[in-house]
Specification:
- 81% of the residues lie in helices and 0% in strands.
- It has 19 helices and no strands.
- The chain has helices spanning 3-23, 28-39, 49-54, 56-73, 76-109, 112-122, 127-136, 142-174, 180-209, 215-235, 240-254, 256-267, 271-284, 289-292, 294-319, 323-328, 338-351, 355-390, 396-401.
- The longest helix has 36 residues, at 355-390.
- It is globular.
Amino acid sequence: MHILLTLGIIMMLGLAGGRLFERIGIPQVVGYIVIGVVLGDSALHFLPVKTLDALSPLTSMALAFIGFMVGGELKYSLFKKYGRQFFSILLAEGLLAMLLVSALTILLTKNIPLGILLGALSSATAPAATVDVLWEYHSRGPLTSTILAIVALDDGLALFLYGFAFSFANALVAGGGLSFKIMLVQPLIEIFGSLLLGILIALIIDRVLNWIKTRDDQLVVNVAAILLASGAAIHFDLSLILTNMAVGLTLTNLHKDRNESNFEVVKGFVPPLYIIFFLFVGARLQLALLPSMGMLGVLYVLGRTGGKWAGSFLGASISGAPSAVKKFLGFALFSQAGVAIGLALDIYQHFGQFGSAGENLGHTVINVIAATTLLVQIIGPPSVKFAISRAGEIPKQTHKNGSDNLE
C-alpha cells in the first residue's frame, strides 16, 4: 500500500478512535494509542515496525512541535512567580522515583547496576501525552502551569541522573573507575548545547518575523524554524525536544504581544501530526510483553508511581505550593515514553559487549521499559484528566460541550 494512502487511512481511524473515547469521557490521546495498538504488530500488522521505522521523521517532527509548543507556555512571569516551587518539585519527584525504583529492584534482583539504571530511567516523564490532555481540555490554573513546567524540565533532570547511573553501572559491570566525562560532561553538553542552539535559532527567527505581515507567512517561518532546529539537533547529537523547547521559550518571552498570535498559528497546524504520532506510539507497543515484565515490572511501576506522587507532594509542601498542586500533581506524571526508551536502547547497545551479564542487563532493561511504557501510556492520560478535573482547572464549557467548543 502506498505510504500516502496508509497515512490517510490511519489519520481517519485515529480521529474516529479519539472522538469515540472522548464521548465516553476518556482523553482522545488514549483512543489514538489504542487504535495504534490494534493496527500494529500486536493485532492487525497494518503498521509493522518496518513501516514505522521508515516514517520515523514524522515522529521526530511531532516531538519537535510538542517541544516548541510546551516552550511557548513557559513565560518568564510564570517562573518569576513559581520558579522555586517548580525546581523543588522537580528535584523531589525525580530523585524519589529514582531512589524507590532502585531500592525495590536491588531488593528483588540483588543486581546493583540494574537497580540504579532502572532508577535513573524512572525519573523521566513523557511530555507528549500529558500536554495533549491539557490542550484537549483547555485547562488553566496553577496545577496546569506546574505540570507544563515539570514535564518540560524532567528530561534535563533525567539526562543528569542517567549520566551518573550509567557511569556507576559501567564501573561495576566492566570494571575500572567512574567516568567524569560520562557522569557530568556529556549530560551538560547535551542540555546546554540544546538550549543554546534553540535560543540562537529563535533569535534569528524573531528578526525574520519582524518583516512578516500575514498569518500564512508566520506559519511558514515557524515551521521552518522548528525543522531547522530539529535537523541541527539531530546533526549535533543534541536533544530534539529540549532544542525546540528553547526555541518556543525564547520566542514567547521576546515579544509577548506578537508571539501570542504566533503560537496560535502553529497550534492550528499540529493536530494531524499529533494523531499520527500517538498512533505510531501505540503501534510500537507490544501487548505480548506485558506478561513478561513479571514482578520486576510491577515493582518498577509501583516505585516510579509512588516516588513521583510522594516526591511531588513533598516538593510542593516544602515550597508552599497551592493545595491543588500538592494533592493532584502526582497523578499527572505517570506517562513514560521517548527519553526512557531511548536511554534503554543506549543501555542495551553499550552493555551487550560485556558478556552474558551485560547482555542480560540490557535485555532486562529493554523489556521492563517497553512493557511498563505500554501500561503507563494507557493509564497516564486519564490520570492527567482526573488531576485537572479535581483541581477545578477544566473550564465549564469544556465539561458541558466538549473540548472543541470552548470559545
